[in-house]
Queue: 4 jobs
Job 1
Amino acid sequence: MDISALMRDLRKIGPQVRVSVNIKRDQGAELIIPILRRTIKYDATGHKVSDTITNLVTKTEINQ
């Protein structure tokens, strides 16, 4: 599997997407994709109540 091609495709999704890859010989690789989620809540009158940014991390095992 061509890891550089996968990383290039993921970056096309958005410039905020950054990935890191940990490769271990004869053990495959671990692809880590951090994604930011932003939640903004408003009350009934339209005033902002909260603004939260959450960093989600997804790990996937890639067996070669």
Job 2
Amino acid sequence: MSYNTLFIHKYKENKVNNHRNTTLKSIQSFGYMIIFALLSLMVSQLALAADKDAKVAWTKIDAGAMVVDVRTAEEFAAGHLENAINIPFEEIAVEFKKRGIAKDTSVVLYCRSGRRSGIAFDTLVSEGYTKSYNGGGFQTLSQFKKPQ
């Protein structure tokens, strides 16, 4: 084998190996991104699933917690918990600031299923409202017998 042939053979071999390494690195990076995305989704679902205990929610309400329905105005008009105020979840931080609600106020949030109240809960906690509670869904809360 001549030097030129050997050089070309080695060059092609290195090019194939480099391509394989690049492909493997790309696959590995993609795998890491998938794992990260799945873990992020699981953590966010856990956060949204936090709280939602009707008994705890009613205990807080009976102790004087502010009750906030984070559904739409139409949903609120169709039925809501007694003494609840309506602040749609996407407006929660702005409305709390506008209304001057103290950050140490005990708040129970609810919506239809607990998803929007979970988002509102996360928003309030990130704004420093540490006594917030995700009460979950309206149906569950309205059907739950208040603790005696």
Job 3
Amino acid sequence: MLDWILGIFGEIFIDQKTMAIFSMLFGAGIVLFADRAEAKGGNHSD
């Protein structure tokens, strides 16, 4: 029973938090990549 409780606790508070952090870092990386491409004149989507 304790193992099950700790597993649920870890899933909710640790795994989901790290997933959110990595998602934000991925989004920030995409924004930086797009900004640098635009600054170099590589944005041809207009």
Job 4
Amino acid sequence: MAVADAFDEHCDYLFKVVLIGESGVGKSNLISRFPKDEFRLDFKPSRGVEFAYRNIKVRDKLIKAQIWDTAGQERFRAITSSYYRGALGAMLVYDITKRATFVNVGKWLHELREFGGEDMVVVLVRNKSDLDQSRQVEREKGKGFAETEGLCFMETSALQNLNVDEAFWK
């Protein structure tokens, strides 16, 4: 597996993935961890949509993962809906230490299903698992919601780099 930052490098396949969820759940750190293996402790909310790329060499083919980090703030919700189009996958992220971020997962999923493709693979991501001692959302709640809605389920910690790559590969 090879990682590159080049935007215009030739690729054989392009896969668009969007990260969605409330502000502060760790989407930006997941998106930084996956392509660049970086983590930032200083929180700066995303504005609109931000992008990252990771090129992966599989056999003799170059696959470009195009990752879109959508802002979680309500004032940016209107501009994010158009960005779902063309996405092959979505990561619906919530923070285990903030119950409200899980409560709103249903709203995000509704929006995703309204504007995204029918064949899109959706992973419900239980983020910040390194803070389990401060959790407000039990693992079983997230897993049960994912099963009911037909979503994949993954626990991650961008801080500890736990299951970040695996969540993107789902």
